[in-house]
Structure formats: C-alpha cells, structure tokens
Write a structure and sequence with these properties.
It is a single chain. With 419 residues, the chain is mainly α. The protein has one domain: Up-down Bundle (Growth Hormone, Chain: A), CATH 1.20.1250. It contains 17 helices and no strands.
Length: 419
C-alpha cells in the first residue's frame, strides 16, 4: 500500500513538472519581453526629455550591472529557500517598477527606478533562475527540450510585447504605455509564481532521479565557491560574457542602428519581429539538438552563427541584410542559455545550480552593461554604431573557440554515467 501511494505521488509530481514549465514560460515571456521594449521607447524618451543616448544608455548599463551583481545572491536564496516567494515578490516589484517608469522626468529618478528597482526585481526572477527551476524538475534526457521551451518564451515575449508596445506608443505615448505594461506584468506573473512548490526538495523528487543510482559529476562540489577554481566554469562564462555583450547591444541599439542607416521604422520593426520568431525556433531546436550533439558544440555553433549575423549587418548595406541578420541572429540568440545552464548542472551538480547559474548571469550582465554603455558613448562620440557592432562580431569568434574546447566528455555527468 505504501509503495502504491509513493508511486502515485511520484507520478503526480512528474506531471506537475509541466505546470512548472508553464510558470517559467509566462515569467520569461513577460519579464524579458518587457525589457526588450526599451528599444521601442528609446528615441521618444530621449527626444521628450532632451537627453542624449549616452545618458540613457548609462542608466540601462547600471540596471544590467546591478542585476548581474545580485544574481549569485538571489541564486543562493533560491538554493536555500526555494523559488516560490522569491519569484512572487520579484515579479510584483518588477511590474510596479515598470509602471513607475511613467513618472520619469529626471535622470536621477530614472536611475532609481530603472537602474535600481527594476534591477533588484530582475535579479530575483531572471531567466537564469527559471532555467534552474526547469533543470531541477526535468530529467537529463528531456532537459534540453524543456529548457528550449522556456527560453522560447523570452523570444515570443519579445515578439509580442515589442509589437504591442509600438502600438501603445502610437496610441497613448510612452508614459501611459508603461502603466499598461506594469499592470499586465503583475496580473499575469504573480499568480503563476505562487504555483511553484515552496520547498525545492519536492521538485527534486519529481525528476525521478531517486529511482536510479546517483552518479556524481567529477567536478561536483559541496561548496559552490569551489567551482570557481575549475576551468570549465570560466570557459562557459567567457563565452557567456560575449553573449551578454551582443544580446544587450542589439536589443537596446538595433532599432536605432537600423533607422540611423536610413531604413524605415517599419523595416526595422519587421526585422525585429522576424528575429524574435527565429529566436523561439532556435531555442527549441538548440535545446533538443544539445541533448544529442553535446552542449558545448551547440554553444560554439551559436556564437559562430551570431558573429556571421553581425558581419552581414555591417558589410551589406541593403534592406535584405536586416532580414538575414534577423534569421541568423534569431536562431543563435537563445541557443546559448539552454546549453549554459544544462552543462553547468551536468558538470557541477544540482546542489548549488542556482548560485552557479547566478554567477554565469553576473558575467553575462557585466558584458551586457559594458556593451550598452560603450555603444551609447561611441555613438555620441563618433555618430555611428559601426565600431560597437564590429567589436561584438570579433568577440563572438573568440567565444566560439573558447566554447568548443570545453572538455564536456570528460566532465559532464551524462558522459561519465554512460562510460
């Protein structure tokens, strides 16, 4: 009788993993999607308030840096206490912060709301933490697929909310648009976050891992700080630093870059929409492919393809280049977070995964903040984004090489278990 009850409980918990995936999907849809709308509002805010692009880029950079610096801390909180109240509090704060953006009149106010409040909220409900939750609930052979779905949520959120924000901007202006977005975030994400079980141990049992002998990865540690002394973590993070550089660069400055080159706003919006669609496809394909072809191979390929996308945009001054960039950049954009989180878990184990994922996102955000600020400063100095986009393309080639030489077969528990 006890065995039957345990089996029924395990089956119920196994089914609940899809609820967890839905929670993660909605959270990244709304939060990453909303963050991506800043490019829609950038020129209007700059013109309305009389600022330059370097000023607002610096505020964006502070947001990215601070949210990154807080990632190891929020990851530790999730490892220690679980995700439920961390996610619920952070999504509520994020929605309120977005709404308060509507009252912006000074740089100091924007720095306080966008640079600090939204950074705190983002750190507590980041895509790294939702990916961690997904990894903990899904078994290894389905992990890449599940992560692909979760990461596709950010692309679909970007696609939908950038389009909706453009309509809201035309109809209501940027201030009223932020109120609508803030309300939508609170109404949709907070109830979903409350569906996450309070204790992490429940999630771990649901993966079915207890039914098989546990195999430890060669680099699995009792203390998360011990992982900082091993090469694979920094190889993963070196590529992820460049990932942050390039992602933040084009979701903040792509639309201004394109329109500055003489292309229409409609063409820029169409290319951005295509990029988002391809990002969702890329997330799904890369997640599944990494289950079979290896995580580091997919990471290296993604960085290489993204480098090609930047070179196309820089060297081919034709409207068609926008769409080629959108396809290549989109397919490679969300191919990396899936493999980064899956490989980190398989090399270092699940005990401190949220904390180590936080370290990775910290590195990612440092790169992102630097590139956003530098691009804004270089634009104000030179009147062009060409240097920024060229540096991004070259850095991506280095990221591809560093990722390819990761010794995955030596350190991943997937390969150790089958050896």
């Amino acid at each position: 009788m006890a065995h039957a009850e345990q089996e029924q409980q395990e089956q119920s918990q196994s089914s609940y993993r899809w609820v967890i995936l839905a929670v993660a999907f909605v959270m990244v849809f709304m939060m990453v999607g909303t963050r991506s709308t800043l490019g829609v509002f950038l020129k209007t805010i700059v013109r309305d308030l009389g600022w330059d692009r370097g000023t607002i880029s610096m505020v964006i950079a502070v947001n990215i840096w601070l949210s990154g610096l807080l990632q190891p801390f929020t990851g530790y909180v999730m490892d220690r206490y679980g995700a439920k109240w961390l996610f619920a509090t952070s999504t509520a704060l994020f929605g309120c912060g977005v709404g308060l953006m509507s009252l912006t009149n000074t740089v100091g106010y924007l720095l306080g709301i966008y640079g600090i409040v939204l950074a705190l909220a983002t750190a507590g409900a980041s895509i790294a933490l939702t990916n961690t939750l997904v990894v903990q609930w899904f078994p290894a052979h389905r992990r890449g697929f599940a992560l692909g779905i979760n990461n596709a949520g950010s692309a679909l959120g970007q696609l939908a909310l950038v389009y909706v924000s453009a309509l809201l901007l035309q109809a209501s202006g940027w201030r009223q648009s932020h109120i609508y977005l803030g309300v939508a975030i609170v109404v949709l994400t907070v109830p979903m976050a409350l569906l996450v079980p309070r204790r992490l141990q429940i999630a771990r049992r649901s993966s079915g891992a207890q039914a098989q002998p546990r195999v430890s990865a060669p680099l699995e540690t009792q203390r998360w700080s011990d992982a900082l002394h091993s090469a694979p973590l920094w190889q993963i993070n070196a590529g992820y630093f460049v990932c942050g550089m390039t992602i933040s660069l084009y979701y903040t400055h792509l639309i201004p870059f394109v329109t500055d080159r003489g292309f229409s706003v409609e063409a820029a919006a169409s290319a951005f929409g295509l990029l988002s669609i391809c990002s969702a496809i890329g997330a799904m394909l890369s997640g599944t492919a990494s289950d079979y072809l290896g995580r580091k191979n997919i990471m290296a390929l993604a960085y290489l393809v993204r480098a090609g996308a930047f070179f196309v945009l820089l060297l081919w001054r034709h409207e068609l280049a926008l769409y080629v960039f959108a396809i290549l950049g989109g397919l490679s954009w969300l191919a990396t977070p899936t493999s980064v989180m899956a490989l980190t878990g398989e090399v270092y184990g699940m005990r401190h995964l949220a904390t180590l994922g936080g370290v990775s996102l910290l590195v990612h955000q440092l790169g992102g903040g630097a590139s956003v600020w530098l691009a804004g400063w270089l634009y104000d100095t030179t009147g062009s984004y060409d240097i920024s986009f060229t540096l991004a393309a070259v850095a991506l080639l280095g990221a591809a090489l560093v990722s390819y030489v990761i010794a995955e077969r030596r350190y991943s528990v997937r390969h150790v278990a089958t050896a």
